[in-house]
Prior knowledge:
about 400 residues, alpha/beta, Urease, subunit C, domain 1, TIM Barrel, 8-stranded parallel β-sheet, about 25% strand, globular, binds N-(iminomethyl)-L-glutamic acid, binds fe (iii) ion
Amino acid sequence: MPEPSSRRGAIVASALVTPTGPAPVRGRSSAEPLVLRDAGVAWEDGAITYVGPADGLPASSPEVFEGGLVVPGFVDCHTHLPFVGWRDDEFETRLAGATYRALHGEGGIYRSARLLSEAEDEEALAFCLPLVREMAEHGTTALELKTGYGLSLEAELRQARLARRLASEAPQACTVTLLAAHAVPHGMAREDWVRVACRELIPAVAAEGLADAVDVYVEDIAFSIEDLRAVAEAAAEAGLPIRCHADQLGPSGAAEAAVALGARSADHLNHVSREGVEALAIGDTAAVLLPASSFLMRGSPPPVRAMAEAGAAIALATDFNPGTSAVLSMPEAVAFGCAWYGLTPHEALTATTLNAAWVLGLHERTGSLEVGKDADLVVLDAEAFRRVPYRPGHNPVLATLVGGRSVVRR
Ligand code: NIG
Ligand code: FE
């Protein structure tokens, strides 16, 4: 538990930039966050009490960050933690010409499921905790954890419980998503697993309060749109929002199906159709961009400008996982999001803070610097947010605070 004194404080920095509500911010308007020079932020009991000019700061003796830029803490709304072990040999095999699809079988998701099953809970936590701390060093103040490396009823439940334990030990706020359909368990028919997921897994997870959302991997090597519909129905009965890995390796119509089902997000979208873009533009489903996985998979980018111009709510995350994206740095995701996917720096800021918080259902407590929200903030060694995507590979974080508590000082 944090010291009571650490829950109250104030900082002054050379500049501040934050999106403002209501969330999610759609399309081009995300280019217009609030920008202040010589800014101050104060908080009490971990909640923001003041955001404005430094000379109006109600608190005395604030910590001063000369040349620093204050932004809301990053919210990584798509990760595959908890997992155990790396798969860099598969990465090298792909560089030599093998496809992700070809490795899916003995390797890929099945291999991470085996590695997790072979690890004790304590070993898995010992692997994951340094990674979530490293995320804090890169400015992540809230994140998603996912299952999907269980691949049986018991193993998915175990991974969800492990995720809740990791959440309780992580310095950040974490939500848990049940990736109920990630890979068809070996020796089982696809529809049989979907039946187990819908009739047993989702109700059990809901009864134990183990997850905050449910996800489905729609792909030719994984699950179908029909499966997505069945899982969405079971999730709705359990009172859980649905998310979807959509159109990552090839087009399937998953994005428009996700919107039609009222999904909270459609993620990846490398091969989204025109109908998918149109649906995202008007529906209540965020488009979650994951350029680090596209980069490491040497894939092609989604039509990001078309989505933004059409008015989609865009979020941006790492997809941190051992198969397609061993990237845990949100500043790195911002660099890919701008230099490769074509987001403006301010669009990328909104996409990694307020809109990402909306995807996780955390937008009322985090994602922007507004009075009443948690004092989740990051101080960057930058004059303007554009410095972040301009310097990929550099960690711009000077300080990370979660609920006003200092978790990183660099
Ligand atoms: O988001 N492609 C589906 N799921 C993950 C990768 C999982 C893995 O390869 O372990 C993704 O890219
Ligand atoms: Fe993913």
